[in-house]
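REQUEST FORM: STRUCTURE PREDICTION
Request ID: SP-0412
Submitted by: Lab K.M.
Chain count: 1
Length (residues): 333
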Amino acid sequence: MKKIVTVFSVFMLLFITACSSDTTSGNGSGGSWEPEKPIELVAPAGAGGGWDTTARMAAKVFEEEGIIDQGIGVVNKPGGGGAVAWAYIHSLKDSPYNLFVTSPPMLLVPLNGQSEFDFKDFTPIANLIADYAAIAVRADAKWNNLNELLEDMKKDPSSISVVGASAPGSMDHIQFVKVAKAAGVDITKIKYVSDQDGGALTQLLNGNVQVYSTGVAETVEQVKAGKIKVLGVTSEERLQGEVLEDFPTVKEQGIDATFINWRGFFGPPDMDEAALAYYEEKFKELNDSEAWAEIRKQYGWSEMYMNHEEYVKFLAEESDAMKALLDELGLGK
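STATUS: Completed
RESULT:
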């Protein structure tokens, strides 16, 4: 009898040890996980834009600060306003080695029917920054503030063309529409010109269009050169930094509208909980580092950290708000 008990005890000890080994290996949702090979960060657009810059700067700080030991490569997958990259990541179901950076087009592009995948088809990890929209005109334009421009648009919205680098119904379009709607412009009559080949600014400077809807960072050098003036930015308060601090906000001009170009990182669908927890911790460490604070300052980004749970809730609320605007424009799917 004693021999049977002893054998049973040994068996149970081996069983418990095996279970413990399984849960700590990262193969199960309850264990820990660390990367064992290089990580890919996908920027769903070409080099030089906000997605690309955010991915490359994050990879740089992760490696230089030793936050993540494995190598991190940034891969550009442009096309479809982000849809090409999302389809690629979606095909890598549950991979913990393929992440991507994204922003409001992750909501807008699926809502207007240009992608079969939306934010619910992926694993939100953490949001890091907030960027903002700028509404700009040529330096010699007759409008010196946003109200002057929007008053003219109230009278005849289609007489003034607005150019942006995104597709109709995506970010550059919607950020302007949100401001115009708050000012009382008939947004269904706004003439929006999409130039996704890098020529939006050129169209403004050549006089082909009158208004440029873009990101704040894209305006700084042109303002310094005396080529354009920024009539308003969509942040709650004035931004800090050379040139940026001179840009008036939309709200300070009496128009109750803001637009946040949030930017963060996602993983493929069904990412293991242990891998999600690992990345959530690492992005928090990145966000809190002095090196990342310097990057934010360099590019005029504001801190907007959200963990996985906060991000999921935020995305659902933003998606509802964007859908309402697209439906009003007749661009919802």
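NOTES: Strands lie at 39-43, 72-76, 98-102, 123-138, 161-164, 191-194, 211-215, 228-233, 260-267, 302-306.
Reviewed by: T.R.
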